[in-house]
Structure formats: C-alpha cells, structure tokens
Amino acid sequence: MPAAALCLLCGVVMPAAMICAEPLPRVTFPSGDPRRTLTRFSQDNVSHYDILLLHESEEELYVGARDRVLSLAVGTPGSIRAKASIMWGPTAEKTSECAFKKKSQETECFNFIRVLVALNETHLYVCGTYAFSPACTYIHLENFTLVSNSRGQPFLDGKGQCPFDPQHTHTALLVDGELYAGTMNNFQGNEPIISRSLGSRTLLKTDAFLRWLSADAAFVASFSIPGDDKVYFFFEETADEFDFFERLLVPRVARVCKSDVGGDKVLQKKWTTFLKAQLVCSQPGHFPFNVIHHAFALPRRRGGADFYAVFTSQWQVGRVGSAAVCAYSQEDLQEVFEGKYKELNKESSRWTVYSGSNMSPRPGSCYMGPSSDRALTFMKDHFLMDGKVSPTQGRPLLVKTGVTYTRIAVDETRGVSGATYRVMFLATTEGFLHKAVELPGGPHIVESIQLFGTPEPVKNLLLAPGKEHVAAGH
C-alpha cells in the first residue's frame, strides 16, 4: 500500500494573470513536474491524513491521522515542517474489546481522528473512533499536549460527536462554542444522528424513533453562514417517499436553528426545528446524479452563500459513469424550507403533501419564543419538505466523464480586467486535482495536477487563499 502523505500546492489559487475571458487549454501536470510546486509531507508509521484544520494565520496546519494529531508549519513556501506530534491511540483494553467485537486489529482497532476544531485561541477539540469506542479530548496549544480531566483521564465520551466505524462518513463544525455534528450514533452503524453538544445549553439530537433520518444516512458536509441563524447539513440516504423497485438514494440538505433549545414536554432534548429537503442534480435524458460525495459553501461578499456539491449516480459502474458539480443558492434552500411539508399517510403508507391549516408561528421556523405542544407534535411528523432544491440555472455546472470527485473547494479571484471569477478545485479518487474556472460560457477545466505517484483517493482538501496554497491529504 502506498505511503500516506500530505501535499501542499503552492500558487495554485489562480493569480490574476492566468485568467482570461476565453476557455484555456487544459494542462496536465504529472507527479513531480517542476512547473507546479508540490510539497509533500509524510512520517514513518503515520497514516490516514484525513482531517485538516488551518490556523487563522495560515502559518500552521493541524492534521488528524490514525492515532496521531500533528502540528505542521506551512508558512514558508515549498516547506512543510513538523512542529509537534501527539500520540493518541486506544488503550490495550479498548483494542482487545474491539477485536472481541470481530473488528480487525490490523485495519480497524485504532483511533482514527474524525473531529478537529479550534475551540478558542488556546485549545483544540478533537475526537476519534478510539477502537470503535469514540472518544474526545482537548489539546492545549501552548505545549501541544492532551488535557486530562479531574480523574486523570485524557478523554471524554465521543458518542454522538464522532462515528464508531472509521469507514462511516461524518461532519462536524463549531459554532459559537457549540459542536454541531452529523455522524453514526451506535456501534451497529444504523442510527445516524445530528447533534449539538459542548457549550452550556442542553444537548440536542434528532429523534431516532421518529425516523427523521434513514438508517443509512451518510453525512458529507455542514455549514454555518455568516448572518444566518441556521446550520446546514448535506448528506444522502435511502428515500422513503418514493415507490421504487430498488433502494433509491437521495441527496439531502437539512437545517436546524441555532436558537433551538428543544421542547419542554414534547421533543425534550430533541430538535424542534429539524427540516430536510431533496437536492436535485440532473441533466435531461440521463440518470440523476443522486450520490453526493462532498459539499462546499462559498459566502458572498454582499451576504448569503452559494453551496457547491459533487455527485455521481448510483447506476454507474466503475469508470464508465460521470461526475457532476451542482451549485445551489442559499435563497433557493430557504424558499424550499419555507414551502409545503410532506406527511406520511398512515393508512396508505404513502407520502403526500400536507394540506391542513397553517399555524403561526410556522412550525420549524427559527422563532425565539416557546412553541406550543401542538406545533411540536406537528414537527414530529412533518420534517420532510415537499419542494426540491434545484441547482442554479436548472442544470449541473460541470459534468465530467470517467472520473469520480471526492472533494470540492471553491475560491474567488480577480482577473486582469477587474472581473471576479470563481475557481473550483476538484479532487479525484485517482489522486488528481482538477482546477476549473467558471466563465460566462460555463466552467472550463484549466489544469489537472497529479498529486500522488500512485493512484490514491484524495480524502481531504483545504484552501489557504491568503497564501495561495491548497492542502490535500490521503
């Protein structure tokens, strides 16, 4: 198996001189090509460089790996230097328990870091799978060490914040000192959860009994947009609302209100504002792109944001299929979430449009006052929206055959004419990075950069626009 590594591309965020009004011919840079500065970092016995967190100064990069958390100096162009490293593996007892549960001691019974966020200026908060017994802890940045609690234990229970299985997708972000997470909540891997923890408020989560989420829900990204009072989660799950002859996956966006404190009698310690809607990414005459792999939020300078996501289709086989990029405006999401609800007809077991009377304030809205038991009871069964979120211009931004994109990041840059262009960075399962520019005639891939010497999927992608760097881990 090829050695795991972290790559840092210098100057890849497109300088103004490279932007022009006409599509540029695509240039491919093979691994080691001197025309594209690529700095690699790896350490012996360290693998799975899965989680990346950039310090606000863009001088330091924190990396969550298998049994390790690294601090890397990345401020000098062409250089990645290890500053500090924390070894945080499971105890022998936890490893033994993991093996007893029929998990592999060679590949699974480790502590795969899955959550790494900056809690404040002095501490990081980190969670890992911890041999299928998720755990969390704090890292003191001054000396880069784990913080022990009053009993000398260096970790806390990570259930609901971090998956048990390293193969399960997940997402987490810190908003105002509180951790919002989308993950699997049990060992069996059939109880997905969206939770809010840390901070001083009551822990909130989705209700598993009410099946707000299908048992196979897989989270890929989450966002908090400046000036908005909601947190958004992007994921996929098996659709219950369609009569289909086979398991049908559907990409979703869900949102919860930051002001949510749970119900008093109804929905105690549960979200009272959880709503979800279907994302559409399709082109006429083709199977829909219904498998979402990742999403990215690009805030606009005048407020609001646009969401970009990468998809494939569940009906494609191997490399014969296509990958698609679809973009959605925050306003389009809001319009669907303010539209009609679906409800399950208990007699026919079919989902239909809710046609009852309206309530005020609207159930699920970010209303600051206490909600009535009637409104909360309504929310228990009316969490799915009838409308679907369509992409901007009604079609994918980009469709590429013979490739699967694993990650996307988007940045804005100014051209020589003064116009602003958006640049998409798309990582592939084969270890390439595609750079595409949104032009008036549509996006155009201008560069294809081979990141690794052997084909390896890119597991994470992180922009440092101030330094014109892109970090990629596998």
From TrEMBL:
One of its GO terms (biological process) is neural crest cell migration. It comes from the Eukaryota. GO terms for cellular component: plasma membrane. The keyword Signal applies. Residues 26-474 form the Sema domain. Pfam families: Sema (PF01403). Keywords: Glycoprotein, Signal. PROSITE patterns: SEMA (PS51004). GO terms for molecular function: chemorepellent activity; semaphorin receptor binding. Residues 1-21 form the signal peptide. The keyword Signal applies. InterPro entries: Semap_dom, Semap_dom_sf, Semaphorin, WD40/YVTN_repeat-like_dom_sf. This is Semaphorin-4A. It comes from Patagioenas fasciata monilis. The gene is SEMA4A.
